[in-house]
Each structure stands twice: as structure tokens, then as C-alpha cells.
Amino acid sequence: MVVLPYDEGFGPTEKTSTLLVNAELRKEYGQLHAAIDDAKEQLLKAVRQQAGSRRTDFGTEISATFTNSDDFDLAVTRIRDELQRQRDAPFASVKYDTIFTEQVVSALNTPALKNTVEDYIQRYNQLLSASTYFRKEIFDY
């Protein structure tokens, strides 16, 4: 069988991977992905325990929060980089479900609150830029 270098109609399937991949490499690839999936589940379980939450889909929530997409790997990479720079965890004992209730989430999604927060940020930045003594690098939201 001859497979052209790029033929969109002949997309990747289980049969093409069987045809084109060495069986030993395919097995190693499967084992690596199984180990990655297991590590992800262990991470999510640890996050759930630390957060004191009963929620089950932390992967989706983490992805959406840190990447505005469903790219969990990218989100974890961003978080890892931020955690490496972080010196302490002042809110580690706060339970996630205490803060993010249905009422809080729906309030955060209202246009009025979004506009108020945006106005606050703009005014805060104006004050810092006009100040002789206070700078953005020193003071944070």
C-alpha cells in the first residue's frame, strides 16, 4: 500500500497507526500516555483534597480558569511557573467550595459586577500612574 505524504481524506485512524508504527514503539507510546493520565488523576485528586472540595471536574475548571480553553496541559504549565515564583500560600486553608458557591459564581457573571470591577481596575491604575510614591510593581490589586 502506498500512502501519499499528505492526503486529508486518508486521516489518522487506528488502522493507519497500526500500519505505520512499529509495534514496540506503539506499546511504549500507549504506556507513556497511560502514565500521564494516571499522573493527571493523582494531581486532580490532590488538588481536590487540598481544596476540601466535593467537585469532580477540577480539570475542566482549571483549564478554563488559566487558559480560557480546555487545554489542561497548558494550564498546569502556567500554574507550575507561577508556583515556582510564589513564596507562600496564604489562602491554602480556605476551602474552595466555601468561596465558589453557585451564588458567588452567578454574581461574578453579572454585567453590573463585571463593569464595577473593570471601573475599579481602571481607577486604581490611574491613581498609581499619577502617584509620586506608589508604583504598580510595589502595590497590587
Considering the chains and any ligands shown, give keywords for the structure.
141 residues, 7 helices, mainly alpha, 65% helix, 0% strand, 2 domains
Give the SSE map.
Blueprint: H1 14-20, H2 23-51, H3 58-67, H4 72-85, H5 96-99, H6 102-108, H7 111-130
Helix pairs in contact: 3-4
Description:
- Helices cover 65% and strands 0% of the residues.
- It is mostly helical and 141 residues long.
- It folds into 2 domains: 14-100, no CATH class; 101-141, no CATH class.
- Helix 3 packs across helix 4 (72-85).
- The longest helix has 29 residues, at 23-51.
- The radius of gyration is 23 Å and the shape is elongated.
- The mean pLDDT is 83.
Short structural summary:
With 141 residues, the chain is mainly alpha-helical.
Total strands = 0
Q: If you average the pLDDT, what whole number results? A: 83
Flag low-confidence runs. none
The number of domains is 2
Biggest sheet record: none
- What is the CA-CA span between the terminal residues? 62 Å
Strand content: under 5%
Number of helices: 7
Q: Find the structural class using helix and strand composition.
A: mainly alpha
Overall geometric form: elongated
